[in-house]
Amino acid sequence: MGKRIDVQDLNVYYSAFKAVEDVTMTIEPRSVTAFIGPSGCGKSTFLRTLNRMHEVTPGGRVEGKVLLDDTDLYAPGVDAVGVRRTVGMVFQRPNPFPTMSIQDNVTAGLRLNGIKGKKVLQEKTEQSLRGANLWNEVKDRLGKPGASLSGGQQQRLCIARAIAVEPQVLLMDEPCSALDPISTLAIEDLVTELKDRYTIVIVTHNMQQASRVSDKTAFFNLAATGKPGRLIEMNDTQKIFNNPEVSATEDYISGRFG
């Protein structure tokens, strides 16, 4: 499991507005890559191009290529829903389906894919909740609403839901920004465990988090106010934080702006 992502000359648009310009990068399989940068610099927008979620916004389109191993996700005839099955996503705020039970939240994607066997769904529920380090906390109340859990548990439930359909890649858009410090550490520990099986990309405003959990870090910034976001520098996380090659990266990390 876990695929490599190659992005080539990617431009992202919302109608006529160019949000992200000319990104080329490689995301290694079974690793954690963090995207950092000031608000509004296109990191979340770019993240959403990796599973075609940006197309959900009217006018969202790209130029360039996103290759998952050797498959261009934007080639004619490629099914966007299939892409999102292979490249799962966890959002900023925990978003369990509020009226659904914990078990039904985990298996929602599986049932959408036509898997109906009760035994299979039960096994998948346990496997996914164990994978999200949540099983022991919820195994006695699988029939309770997902919304009855704490914020940190809800976010791990969303991770369980994402991994239940066995994606190759897991995208996380600031998954801890709505959580308390204890829950944040639980998610960070989980990310470290999950990278053995998945390629993980995480957008974070938290510089310490990026340095703790990621193998590689990409710094995005705006060329100027009103201009598109750009990839400024990408390298091993330790190099980005200790010895960046671009002065703008150093300024951002040391808190001189951003």
TrEMBL record:
<keyword id="KW-1278">Translocase</keyword>
<protein>
    <submittedName>
        <fullName>Phosphate transport system ATP-binding protein</fullName>
    </submittedName>
</protein>
<dbReference type="InterPro" id="IPR027417">
    <property type="entry name" value="P-loop_NTPase"/>
</dbReference>
<keyword id="KW-0067">ATP-binding</keyword>
<dbReference type="InterPro" id="IPR017871">
    <property type="entry name" value="ABC_transporter-like_CS"/>
</dbReference>
<keyword id="KW-0813">Transport</keyword>
<dbReference type="InterPro" id="IPR003439">
    <property type="entry name" value="ABC_transporter-like_ATP-bd"/>
</dbReference>
<dbReference type="GO" id="GO:0005524">
    <property type="term" value="F:ATP binding"/>
</dbReference>
<dbReference type="Pfam" id="PF00005">
    <property type="entry name" value="ABC_tran"/>
</dbReference>
<dbReference type="InterPro" id="IPR005670">
    <property type="entry name" value="PstB-like"/>
</dbReference>
<dbReference type="InterPro" id="IPR003593">
    <property type="entry name" value="AAA+_ATPase"/>
</dbReference>
<dbReference type="GO" id="GO:0005315">
    <property type="term" value="F:phosphate transmembrane transporter activity"/>
</dbReference>
<dbReference type="GO" id="GO:0016020">
    <property type="term" value="C:membrane"/>
</dbReference>
<dbReference type="GO" id="GO:0016887">
    <property type="term" value="F:ATP hydrolysis activity"/>
</dbReference>
<dbReference type="GO" id="GO:0035435">
    <property type="term" value="P:phosphate ion transmembrane transport"/>
</dbReference>
<keyword id="KW-0547">Nucleotide-binding</keyword>
<feature type="domain" description="ABC transporter">
    <location>
        <begin position="5"/>
        <end position="247"/>
    </location>
</feature>
